[in-house]
Design goal:
By secondary structure, the protein is α/β, with parallel strands linked by helices. About 25% of the residues lie in helices and about 25% in strands. α4 crosses α5 and α4 crosses α10. It is globular, with a radius of gyration of 20 Å.
Amino acid sequence: MTTVAAYAAPSAKAPLERTTIERRAVREFDVLIDIEFAGICHSDIHQAREGWGEAIFPMVPGHEIAGVVSEVGPGVTRFAVGDRVGVGCLVDSCRECDNCKAGLEQYCTGGSVGTYNAVGKDGEPTYGGYAQKIVVDENYVVRIPDGLALDVAAPLLCAGITTYSPLKHWNAGPGKKVAILGMGGLGHMGVKIAHALGAEVTVLSQSLRKKDDGLKLGAAHYYATSDENTFKELKGTFDFILSTVSAPLNLDAYLSLLKTDGAFVNVGAPEEPVALNLFSVIGGRKTLAGSGIGGIQETQEMLDFCAEHGFGAEIELISADQINEAYERVLASDVRYRFVIDTSTI
């Protein structure tokens, strides 16, 4: 066991505070990672405040982890001390179900183990990346290419893969009109990735406040959803809409923007149920779907893709004592576009 400095929420809705946690001793197939940077995801806030249901406390959030390997178990073959690596939203799965065998560990039917706010196979709670070290089985660790700085790579472990996976699955690319709904931590990565895949990208945002950023990151068009004319003008326009918004939406209005056989895919997860008139999908044979993160192999593919195209996340680097302030700023949409904690400050 190793004692590690971390930031934790002691109870639901309580401010995060500096503490220490125990990391397990390195097992045969484990990798010990010195965490250098950890991104702040909106889902960290949902869970620390029990917005998605009952949670485990104390909670050390963080599933956008970038660092350097400092020790490996005797059976490890994929990594060596000194390697630049990342850990995303899951640290284990059953490894036996059809999904795990197909590289879809994120949909493990036996139950994947979250990087935090979960219970591992050893019965111990998992603690995430707002800490100085983490121990993870090598099968759930990915390599960060040399072309990506660790600080801008960290958010790719959730925001990057959460947008890359559905964009790839629904074949965003040349000849496709893709809309990214929401221009935040996930949305800005969606714009970059969809553009790099060759799609014609439109941003749909509440206001035009971030229009210049959106166009700079690769969008060809930018519309305000607060303007009723947007829904008239864009009716029947898109092959694919990716919603990164975690607030309830008028789904019927957004489904009207799809072409026949178009898909509206949710990666943002509101805390409340949303309403839908089924005629909105029946007319036009449209698809309303959801998508989680990606599997380990696809996460590696995404990192390599981002490195090849020369981009990471747009970040604001903070010290650990700014985490609580950062949470409030995320809720106020006051970040461009992802807070990343310099974990040397924990």
